[in-house]
Each structure stands twice: as C-alpha cells, then as structure tokens.
Amino acid sequence: MLGSLPSFARLVAELSKLPGIGGKTATRLAFHLLRRSQSEVEALAAALVEMKRNLSFCRRCFNISEGDYCHICNDTRRDESCVCVVQEPQDLIAIERSHGYRGRYHVLHGALSPLDGIGPEDLKIPQLLARLKDEEIVEVVLATSFTIEGEATALYLAQLIKGIGIKVTRPAHGIPLGSDLEYIDPATVQLALDSRREL
Amino acid sequence: MLGSLPSFARLVAELSKLPGIGGKTATRLAFHLLRRSQSEVEALAAALVEMKRNLSFCRRCFNISEGDYCHICNDTRRDESCVCVVQEPQDLIAIERSHGYRGRYHVLHGALSPLDGIGPEDLKIPQLLARLKDEEIVEVVLATSFTIEGEATALYLAQLIKGIGIKVTRPAHGIPLGSDLEYIDPATVQLALDSRREL
C-alpha cells in the first residue's frame, strides 16, 4: 500500500528513526501531518533545519549554545570559581530550573562505561582538566547521574580533582520532597537516615 | 534556559504540536536531533515538505494519493462493483494488508457523532451517495469501526443504501485468531456464538 505512496513512505521511514518512535507511531504522526496545513508542516521542517544550523556546543563548557560560548559562560554574574559537572545538557537544564546553583557548568556528554568502551577520552574529561588548570576554580560539584555509570564517573573525577587540590562535592542523597516513605526504595531511606540533620 | 536558545525552543514548540508528544518528549527528540548529522536532520525536513507537496486525496474515493486518483481506483483488476466504506485511510491500509478484499473503497474521513456536531455533510457521505448513483455498484461493505460512532454510521448508511436497492454488508463479529476465550469480552463471545457455523 505505502509502496504506491513514495513520499508518504519516506516520511514514515524518517520519523521511525527518532528514538521511541516505531513504525505504528510514525504512521500515525504522518497521517496527522497530512491533515495539517502546508504552512504548519513547513514551520516544523524549517524549525528542524534552523535548529541544526544555529546550534552548536559552547567552546568552554560544552553546553548547547547559539554562539561560541553559551549564555551561562557569557553571564558575568555567575560564580566563575565553581564548576558543576553534568552528563548531558538536559541535566544542566534540570539544575537551572531548580534555581539552586549560581556557578558555571561542564557538560561531559556521557558517563564512563568500560563495558561499552567509553573511557575518559570519549567524554569532555580532558577539557575539564584543562579548565581546572587554566581557570581559578575553587570547587567542583559532581552532579553526574546517580546510576552505576554516573557514580563511577563521579568517583573517577573526584580522585583526579582532589589530587590537584580542588574541593570536590556531590549533591546530597535523601528523600524527595512530597514523597511518601512507603514508596521510597530502602537504599535511599538508609542514605537519608545516615545523613540525618539536627533540627 | 531555553529562552536563550530560540531555535531550540522553537523546534521543541513545533514538535510539541504533534499528537501524543508533550513537552518532555519534544525536548528529548530535539536533543536527539541535535546529535544527528546535518544531512540526517535535513532528510527529515525534506520528507515533511515533500509529503505535504505530493500527497492529496483521491477524487473518487478520498484515499490518500499522489495523483488525482489513488492506486486502487487506477487498478483495473479491482472489482468496480463493490465498494468498501471505511472511516480513515488507516483502516483502508489495514484491510489491504489482510488481502481479503478485491473491490474499491470509499473513505469517509470520520464517523457520525452528533455530540461533536459531526453530521453526514461533514463526512464524504454526499460523495458516496453520488458514486452509488453514477457507478454500477452492486454491494457496499460497511467497514466503519466497531465503536458506538462507527456502528451508528454503519446503521445510518445501511438504511440509506438499502433504500436505493443496493446490497449492504458488514464484516462479521467473532473471536480473533489465536486468542484465548478467557480474555475476550463477553459481548464478543456472545456475538461469536450467535453466528456460529456448522463445520
């Protein structure tokens, strides 16, 4: 059936390449787009091409950026002496959304994973070490994910950076706000109890 | 954060307009596309624009088509005396996939739904009645969905078409192949028993 509609079949094939979108969802999206106006579909196509044309990565911290340096590196009100290391630009966005951090960032673009053959050279770790040498950095916050890979990356970086004599911290473990103890995993409850605070 | 990345924010906004894609999925897709090569993203954009440019609806049956008439209407081997009425082009594809039908189609582009203000004039029903008058049609298979709206549409069309003196049929209800009776809803089991066949 789709063989007689090459441009429809091609759109379905292109949409199927997106993560989490299989053949059925791609077909549903293509039928949806077929019903939208020409200008709406062209707006989506133009947004795709322009995003790719305009966006690159910050030359200092590897956050996504529309210029050589990202808006955080360009912001003189940010604390230049503190660098928060994250795995992905998405993590940076999550931290910014919390309004809990006023320093700069360094985006690794992944985590160490020896089983997948991802070593320090495959991430932005050499660039981080160069920054620690060139810039006057007092504290590094290791905000890699709290997964096996993220923890391993944090441990690896902590040893390296402490060796240079720079303070290394990691966000605290604990019970998320508004959550019911009953539904929190026992390991998190244990960590929260270990680091209990006096009120 | 995204305010400082207008082209990224615009792509997320455009992707969020797609059905079943919310803000979080749109952001995830945009980050995925950011990592793809320029040519891959341009291929998707081109597929969108070309699909919209090339595709329209068949002038006879309102199936999607790259020309004035769809490949089924153009196929002289199809039985011109039988018309299968479906709600959406997707339903037509499902029937074609079954290889169980060799006639032509008529796509209504919806079902009657008085509560949503959708009457016969909002669907391709006038065009179906014109076909029944102009073409030499012997049988109409009403393959609208087996939902309340689909059944109501079938009932409405059955009365109209029987009035013209044309044979009207509807695909049989019953137990799907390979299914366990235990998991079939009681109404379907009842219908399957009512139309039991002698072996």
Secondary-structure class of chain A: alpha/beta
Order of helices and strands of chain A: HHHEEEHEHEHEH
**Greatest chain-chain contact:** A-B, 54 and 54 residues
**Highest-level CATH class of the largest domain in chain A:** Alpha Beta
The CATH architecture classification of the largest domain in chain A is: 3-Layer(aba) Sandwich
* General shape of chain A: globular
Major sheet of chain A: size, sense and barrel closure? 4 strands, parallel
Instruction: Kindly provide the radius of gyration of chain A, computed on alpha-carbon positions and rounded to a whole number of angstroms.
Output: 22 Å
Q: Remind me, CATH topology of the largest domain in chain A? A: Dna Topoisomerase Vi A Subunit, Chain: A, domain 2
* Termini Cα gap of chain A: 69 Å
Q: What oligomerization state is this entry in?
A: homodimer
**Portion of residues within helices of chain A:** 40-55%
Number of domains of chain A: 2
What strand order characterises the main sheet of chain A? 4-3-5-6
Helices, strands, pairings?
Two copies of one chain form a homodimer.
Chain A: H1 6-16, H2 23-35, H3 38-54, E1 56-57, E2 64-65, E3 79-86, H4 89-98, E4 103-107, H5 125-134, E5 139-142, H6 148-164, E6 167-169, H7 186-194
Parallel strand pairs in A: 3-4, 3-5, 5-6
Antiparallel strand pairs in A: 1-2
List keywords for this structure.
Helicase, Ruva Protein, domain 3; Dna Topoisomerase Vi A Subunit, Chain: A, domain 2; homodimer; 2 domains; two-stranded antiparallel ribbon; 199 residues; alpha/beta; four-stranded parallel sheet
Describe the protein.
The structure is a homodimer of 199-residue chains. With 199 residues, chain A is of the alpha/beta class. The first copy, chain A, is built from seven helices and six strands. The first copy, chain A, is globular, with a radius of gyration of 22 Å. The mean pLDDT of chain A is 91.
